Each structure stands twice: as structure tokens, then as C-alpha cells.
Amino acid sequence: MKLQGAIIAAGRGERLRNSTRDDIPKPLVMLGGEAMLSRQARAILDAGASSVVAIVNSETARIASEKKLVIANPPSVALVVRDTANSMETMLALGELLEPGWFIASTVDAVIPQTELARFVNESRKKIEECREKNLAGVLAVTRWRGEAKPLFADVTSNGLILRLGNRQTSMVTAGLYFLSTRVFDYAADARRAGLDALRRFLALLIERGMALDAIELEGSIDVDEASDLDAARAAIRKMP
Asked: pLDDT tens digits for 84-95?
């Protein structure tokens, strides 16, 4: 199974900026000695993707150019500049850039141990290859809720099927990592007609329309939204082999 990679990185990262008082786009924040975007692209390639498309906004592209930052060095990584209205539109923009098939997508701020990222990819492949469900849209990474603000809660069955996504509190939340079929882009028009304005709402729409999403629980993932998350991610990276 050929696997394409993608990074959703077109937001401004306002919560992180406000908490650090460092006026720099989140994809360019340094983490483990490299920009978050560079680190995420390398991690996705190391996990088995043949290529990576990263969508950034024009501010990120401009500042990276002014500072002469190398944020996507390998030839298998392509930067696409799009000033999208929201995270859903950033995801849907990938429909114009990816070949039909399967892809692994990540938010730029999902810091996941490489062993867990590789396990997610391998187990997702296995689920897809063994599943006879034609409506399988893909697999989402989930993690135990630790009290983070504004999570996307996932109601997951004992065999790993996601029943619903939303604000109703459960023990599991999404972790910013997705293994999806490009068939999800068939629902772009439905989502726009419904006035959806966030990736989380688009994912919930897929389930409402009868598409199946499975879940795989990850350990040690950190969603970098605020200064305390960045400190935790840097500490975790220092301990990684």
C-alpha cells in the first residue's frame, strides 16, 4: 500500500503565541533543534510515507524566507502556501494535491514518539487490509484525556470503532494524527453546504454520513497549544532515544 504524507500547518497558532509572547508561526517554533514543521515531516517520512505535502500560510512562508529557515529540506517534502479559512479547508485542500489512495496526515503540533507513530501506521495498515467494510474512511489516533482545554472527544467501542466525535466528555480524545482514504474528500461539498468551519466537525460529518472511522490509542502524545505544552514536548524529546 503506497502511503502519502501530509501536514496541516496553515493556522496562526494564536494560543501558543499568546502564552509564549513569541510572535512566530507555530510551524517555525523550534523543537528538538529544528522547526516543528521540519521535525514533523521527517517523522512522517521515517514512519513509512513516500512523500509529504505540508500546507502553510503565507505568513509562515514569508518569515521562513526572511529568516532563511530550512523547514522542508528533503526533495520528498513539498510546501504548499494556502491562506485557508480554517482547519477543515486546509484538510480539504489536500484533495487537490494527493493522488487517490491512502494518506497519513498530522497537525503540525502533534508531538508523538517515533515508536508510537510507526506503530500507528503499521496497525492502521493492518486494520485496513483486514477490514471488509467498504465504508471504512480510515483510522484516527486517540489518547487518554488529561484535562486539556478544547479537546475533540471520541466515543470508542471495545473493538476500536469510533461511534461519535464531539464535545460530550469521554475518556478518549483525538491526537492530531490521521490515516485516511482520499475518499473523504467526496464529502467536501456536503461539509461546505452545511457551513462547517473546523476539521473536527468534518470528521464528525463523515461518521454521520455512514463512513467508518477506527481508533488506535497512542501513548506519550502531546498537543502543543500553549507554553506549558511546549515545555512538556521539549522535555519529552530530550528523553527520547
From this structure: 999 999 999 999
